[in-house]
Amino acid sequence: MQNISPFNSIPQMSQKRFAQPAFKGSAKVELLGKDISVGVRNFLIQETAFFREPDTLEFIKSFVKNSTKQVINIVDGACSSGYETYSIAMLLENIGKKVNILGFDKGQKAINDAIKGEFQIKRRNNDFDDICDFAKDSFLAFPQKLSKHEQKYKNMFNNFFTDITKQKKEHSFFKRLKSMLTDAMTPYDTKTFLIKPEKKSTCTFKTGDILELDKIVPEKSADVILFRNALYHLTTYEAYDRKAPLPDKLIKPAIEQVVTQLDKALNKGGLFVLGSHECDHFSNTGEIVHSTLKKHNFIPLYIENKLPVIWQKS
Ligand SMILES: C[S@@+](CC[C@H](N)C(=O)[O-])C[C@H]1O[C@@H](n2cnc3c(N)ncnc32)[C@H](O)[C@@H]1O
């Protein structure tokens, strides 16, 4: 098993900051209506952020760079509102290859947001944020002393997004009046960014369910498929309490269904990418996912947070 993360060689402090699994920025919840037969929950947790779990993303970048192929197809499953998808696009820009990036999510609202290309970044500024490890992509939008790596990401971000916070605020007369009265005293806590028109085509988005991957991705067409920090939607009861796993006899067929379809959709040597937080949501989910991937001859390639998060189709 290799670990070629470029973050391995950077000083301990910044490595620690970047290696943490939680990288929350935007946290929305989308209701799926009353129909819970489609899954175990009737709501989707759409917590996400720009450059979440950057070591894993950097590994994907190295993989794409070193590939002999000139056209690479990436499918970002459970992409939420697109923070992750555009992070991949930013990292892979100027890599010298044609990279097609498709983001899909079960949530219609999340996909509408992704297509709109408007993103919020929250200021990380109080004890609560530190305790909850919240708003970690704050450095992209708010002034602070930046590490070399944060500066690299901020440059990419500025190249892709325009700050439209003021336009949003000043949209209506009352908002304008309110901001005139308050902004001088209170700095913005949330900033809004819009994808630049010329960068919009770097990603496409559609709704879709990982359980029906064959409807989204044609056979043997993908080089990288991500499904990060989302598997717990398939393995838990409808409840906020994440300590409510389904019985193994229900989890196993769902995971088998996902892996069988991944196997079909990926090209030989292609990657399946999990989140580093994936398997500690529940004790047994990790084991089931890993053993199913092994059964289908996937090879663990890269470890983050002590868990194999990147698997290669042999
Ligand atoms: C916690 S977010 C993770 C977002 C992003 N992958 C990340 O790591 O930042 C989980 C996402 O999974 C999506 N999701 C849940 N079940 C899904 C399914 N069966 N198919 C596709 N997306 C799903 C949710 O709508 C939500 O956007």
Task: Describe, in short, the structure shown.
The protein is α/β, with parallel strands linked by helices and 314 residues long. The chain is built from 11 helices and 12 strands.
Q: What do you see in this structure?
A:
The chain is an alpha/beta fold and 314 residues long. The chain has one domain: Rossmann fold, CATH 3.40.50.150. Helix content is 35%, strand content 24%. It has a seven-stranded mixed beta sheet, with helices on both faces. α2 packs across α3 and α10 crosses α11. 40% of the residues are buried. The N terminus is likely disordered. The structure holds S-adenosylmethionine (SAM). The site of S-adenosylmethionine (SAM) has 23 residues, from β2. The site of S-adenosylmethionine has 23 residues, from β2.
Could you outline the blueprint of secondary structure elements for this entry?
Blueprint: H1 12-19, E1 26-31, E2 43-48, H2 54-66, E3 71-77, H3 83-92, E4 98-105, H4 108-116, E5 118-122, H5 127-132, H6 148-160, E6 161-163, H7 165-169, H8 173-182, E7 190-195, E8 204-207, E9 222-227, H9 232-235, H10 248-265, E10 266-274, H11 283-295, E11 298-304, E12 307-313
Parallel strand pairs: 3-4, 3-9, 4-8, 9-10
Antiparallel strand pairs: 1-2, 5-7, 6-7, 10-12, 11-12
Helix pairs in contact: 2-3, 10-11
Bound molecules: S-adenosylmethionine.
